[in-house]
Specification:
alpha/beta, 3-stranded mixed β-sheet, binds uridine-5'-diphosphate, 7-stranded parallel β-sheet
Length: 324
């Protein structure tokens, strides 16, 4: 199968490319390398370019003739989206429109979209089901919801995957996330354990949870990549357009993640309690029944220790080899 992966040089995209390549699919990555890396593309061809460039997109479609598109390219930093909403609408919405117009022109009818649990905003109940109310509370979440809605209005067979908290890296330490200004909890924890940050700050200890810190559903990036493959095969088998949560269905508190990191990396590190971070839902856990039942999703790495260990080993390599 020929699969075009936009954003395939990024953190999650590179794992999808790896799984597609391993099973022998023909992959073409289109990425502007703004946050992605050339070294992260382990299979297929990489074309450097931006989705705002309709001419290059057309050239790619006429040359590669994809059977399906997996659309990962997007801006993904929530606080940045609050500061620069127009950048986010342009990158995430307008560029998706360019891509979908090209799909229409070249009659590409299978489309997988990387959406986010950010479309739920602050859910009233947990675990969150796909049909629960959608109330994004930041521009990032809004842009994801706009594209989900747009897809529903198009005659294109599609799957939207709503990611919960993605973490971890390749067990063989070939690929993983490589960002200088990491904001995500697990990256920051392993970084602090490695002595690259002085102290781990915990945003809020007065939430209505057992230990007062926020709870999240952390999914290993390898399982998330597998979810895309299942979604792709589902579409190729004629499955109808659908939306799936991607999480394990249970969560860990910030303190649990911190303590597990200390245990896994066998080191104590300083922790400081700070005030709440704006826009953080107290608990965010996926109801993952739908993807388990409809796509037969069977996670292999539902193990916080494995997630932290792979993230820690990877982070070490990133700093040693300056892979940022
Ligand atoms: N968090 C924290 N300290 C950090 C980074 C994150 O206490 O240095 C908390 C954050 O407030 C949230 C949870 O960890 O409750 C997960 O945050 P992350 O940024 O990893 O993902 P998000 O859930 O915001 O997508």
């Amino acid at each position: 199968m020929k699969v075009l992966v936009t954003g395939g040089a990024g953190y999650i995209g590179s794992f999808i490319v790896k799984v597609l390549g391993e099973r022998g699919d023909d992959v073409l990555v289109y990425d502007n390398l703004s946050t992605g890396h050339r070294w992260a593309v382990l299979y297929g061809k990489l074309v450097e370019g931006d989705l705002n460039n309709s001419k290059t997109l057309e050239n790619i479609f006429s040359y590669f003739k994809p059977d399906a598109v997996i659309h990962m390219a997007a801006s993904v930093v929530v606080p940045e989206s609050v500061k620069y909403p127009l950048k986010y609408y342009r990158n995430n919405v307008i560029n998706s429109i360019n891509l979908l117009e090209t799909c229409e022109r070249f009659n590409v009818k299978k489309f997988i979209f990387s959406s986010s649990a950010a479309v739920y905003g602050i859910p009233h109940t947990n675990p969150v089901k796909e049909d629960m109310p959608l109330n994004p509370i930041n521009p990032y979440g809004s842009t994801k919801l706009v594209v989900e809605k747009l897809l529903q209005d198009l005659p294109i067979q599609h799957v939207c995957l709503r990611y919960f908290n993605v973490a971890g890296a390749d067990e063989k330490c070939r690929i993983g996330q490589a960002v200088k200004d990491a904001t995500h909890l697990i990256t920051r924890c392993v970084r602090t354990a490695l002595g690259k940050c002085r102290c781990l700050e915990i945003y809020g200890s007065d939430y209505d949870t057992d230990d007062g810190t926020c709870i999240r559903d952390y999914i290993h990036v390898e399982d998330l990549a597998q979810a895309h493959i299942l979604a792709l095969d589902y579409l190729m088998d004629g499955g109808k357009s659908s939306i799936f949560n991607c999480g394990y269905g249970h969560g860990y508190s910030v303190l649990e993640v911190v303590n597990k990191t200390k245990e896994v990396m066998n080191i104590d590190f300083p922790v400081r309690f700070k005030g709440r971070r704006e826009g953080d839902p107290p608990v965010l856990i996926a109801d993952s029944e739908k993807i388990r039942k409809m796509l037969n999703f069977k996670p292999r790495y539902d193990d916080l220790e494995f997630i932290i260990r792979t993230a820690g080993n990877w982070e070490k390599r990133v700093w040693e080899e300056n892979l940022f």
